[in-house]
Amino acid sequence: MSQSHILVIDDDPAVRQILAETLTGEGHQVTVMSSGLEGVEAVKDQPVHVVLTDLQMPGIDGLETIDRISKIDSKIIAIVMTGYGTVDYAVRAMKAGAFDFITKPFEPDTVAVVVRKALDVYKLKQENHLLRKAVRDQYRLEHLVGTSAPMRMVLDFVEKVADSDSTVLIEGESGTGKELIARMLHFNSMRRERPLVPVNCGAIPETLLESELFGHEKGAFTGAAHTRLGRFELAHGGTIFLDEVGEMSLPLQVKLLRVLQERCFERVGGTRTINVDVRIIAATNQDLAQAVQERRFRQDLYYRLHVIPIHIPPLRERRSDIPLLVNHFIAQFNQLRRTEILGMEPDALARMMEEEWPGNIRELENMIERLCVLKKRGMITMGDLPERPVKMNAGKGVESPEQFIRFSEDGINLTKELEHYENRLIGEALRKANGITSRAAQLLQVNRTTLVEKLKRKGFDPKTHGYSIQN
What we know:
The chain is an alpha/beta fold. Helices cover 45% and strands 14% of the residues. The protein has helices spanning 13-25, 36-45, 62-72, 87-95, 108-138, 149-161, 178-187, 206-214, 231-234, 250-262, 288-293, 299-305, 322-336, 346-354, 360-375, 414-432, 437-444, 448-458, and strands at residues 5-9, 29-33, 50-54, 77-83, 100-104, 168-171, 196-200, 239-243, 264-266, 273-275, 279-284, 308-311, 340-344, 377-380. The longest helix has 31 residues, at 108-138.
């Protein structure tokens, strides 16, 4: 911030002179006005950071002056000045938005300290404003990378429904960019100035998820030492993003259904009904319609969430977007990792377009980061790409026997070998599922509880394998 500009409004010439001398001596630019109307006009003509105004003045009083100034520029910090007999009036002013008040007569040093604190708050407001603007710019619809027909359809649909308050269900495989779409929906909506609160329903233990969503009262359970606001309360006026909503337990689905229907709930351990104004965006990598048939997901909740469905196509169905994404991630990691990658040679790019990318955009992004870090500068060539993994048999999804069986003269221990191969399959499934056990269970065609029990029995340590396991 350049030199701070302080506006002093007081009908007493002596007060104006003292404040002008004090604040100028502190290095501030100072403008003095004798009435609230003059002060309001001054704010229209030039940028002001802090306003010191008397409360009782002819014409419009200090409260009205603060109100009019805040409508011109809400970032301006207001400090009110008042005599001892009108402190209650000053408190009213603070409730109306004033930062602080100073009683007359005052010490010049006291004024200087209060103004410095006010300027610190102004800087924070300015930084917050710039940060919000940067975030909004980042999630402008035209920044969605992709010109393929499937992605243009998604973009057009997002543009149509962003300003609606209707519930949205985003469906797609892991790594396709569901959270990015959710953020675009929020930051292009009327709620963009209010919070976007994400909740990963698959990463929070079931026993804690209810408290995370709805909050809890002090003493509601062991360890609840204080009352805590839930994510729905924190999202009031804005948007809540329920990622991996298909992982939610049936009892909790009932409570979520009530919020969707009535926009109200009670905290855990509480009896007071809390009303909230939120837009709900949910996302899942599961087939919720099938989950309804299997009685793993409530049908009434599914219909409540499925008001506006958005399907994000996997990367293998939008291969023409891969060159754009590659260039986008190269530019991104050149900046983040301070590399100097010029691009990718045509044969290497053709190879990238041939891959299946089961991890979708997230897998592609990780690959480009790895290539940038290892290459550091120049063009990425075919020789820089990792060797293709051994292909799986299309029918059964397992390696052919000759690729992994090694008989010694004494033979093999069948039990140990089967255990070893099972461990390899589980590890590979978790890697492809980015540590999400429900997705890994789908890949292995077993129930999630079966997989979790196997992991516990085997003492499987995810850190040893380079990723964390999520529910």
